[in-house]
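Subgroup meeting minutes
Present: P.N., E.W., G.H.
Scribe: E.W.

1. P.N. recapped why we're keeping a running log of single-chain structure predictions: easier to compare across weeks, and new members can see raw inputs and outputs side by side.
2. G.H. added today's entry (542 aa).
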Amino acid sequence: MKMKIVPVRTLLLLLLAIVLPSTLTAQRTPPPELSHIEAFIERGMKDWEIPGLAIAVVKDDELVWARGFGVRRLGNPTPVDENTLFNIASVSKAFTAASIGILVDEGLVDWDDPVVDYIPYFQLYDPYVTQNTTIRDLLSHRVGIGRLTGNRLRWISHRDPEEQIRRLRYLGPEQPFRAGYVYNNVLYMVAGEIVRAVTGQRWEDFVAERIFQPLGMNRSFASMDYFSEDENVAYPHQEIDGKIVEIPRRSFDGVGPAASIHTSAKEIANWMRLHLGEPGEFEGRRLLSRTVVGEMHRAQNTIRGAAFGPLSAYGLGWNLGSWRGRHVSRHGGAVDGMNTTLVLVPEENLGIFITTNTFNTFMNALAQQVMDAYMGAPAEDWHQVTLRNHQRQKARVQAQRDSIHAARIPNTTTSGPLEEFTGLYYDDLYADARVRLVDGKLVLEFWDDEDQIADLEHWHHDTFRAIWRNPAMREEFVWFTRGPSGEIDQLHIEWVLRPGLLQVGAYPSSYTRVGTLVKIDERDLPRLISDLGQGTTTDSNN
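Output recorded in log:
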């Protein structure tokens, strides 16, 4: 992927560093409460094989500790420090909610405004749901529609946001409208488009101007337009076939408001301070009203909970729960090879940010260790607890994967020559995919996107395993079926919406969706796309 460097922005940020509030000086030596935490981190990174980690701790409106550990990139000695930029993935969602909150404070929108008031072409599976879905519904995951193509946000990312939004009408619900919690990334992209509709600014530019700049987050950015490999940035890594390896960096700008912010431990400390102490105020300047911040951290949608038990809920861009009797607002984030957690404990005026450049749950153990230290809780080795749980889960998931492999039928052939499987396939929801024959093997490409290409490995009969050329995307199962004429007329793909454990592979999974694409004539594609713009359902709709 070609990265675009914007030197004008570099000059602007030098000016901003002079005229805007700077972050507090980071303390590289941990405070007394965390006297043993560095050894804890180093042990955890070794056991989890984490290349690089950065942490920031805010207490009583001060950045009391920020430090990096390990390296930005395997095989390169350049260390991670408190200024190293990481993609914080879904931790970006709270910034999108805050962007809407700024507009609420200015009287330009209301949380309960219908989405169609701002995006007239927004349409969902049901006319009532379309007309009644509000901004609050988008931000609290209570619309009822779920993921489209997987945990790694693989969703027509290089096409116009309007096309993505128009295709949502063909996605059926997983739960009835407002009946519960169904996590959805693309609806956060819709929220970002509302920011554009109201202000005329792209979401990423609005965030930079209205949030990053006043918080002194001068190196943070929300679009790969501003990315440079020459920066102090972490590289993504992933466990593949039992080994931690570097993987390609991908842009998530197509659903940017859900997952595209890059920042450092030192800079995001100011974001945590904005939500703690006097909520909405940073160094004497009010950026958000107390009411808006309170709404973001108020339960909007129950996730799970038993009578008289701990409540788990979602606010607006925040997961809400408790730890040792204290209220906690938190959010995790994961994109290719990047894993982040951010935790706020308002009653302790405590904020914790941890980010790493590979997938792990050690971050959660580390956050719990820090919370316990400040709460004076009895010592417990959360690293060992978490590692044991991970090892058990890994063994269980690997056994399930082995059983899938054992069910493969040996010595089968396809129902016809491979040329019969080639062609252009289309679906109203999943758009277009092309199957080609290259050097005697089938190759699958979605959306004319060079980042979405898979080699089709024959599995059995007319079923193939799609091995994505980007190793971070792992694999999915694809199969073909014949119509009444006897010709191949449909391609089916089982999208893995959430792997059992990504370190093992994309499958097994208990959360999948099968997409069915119909073979079409190349000349029909412009008409189908035109029909999409007019809201016409085609015969290929699921």
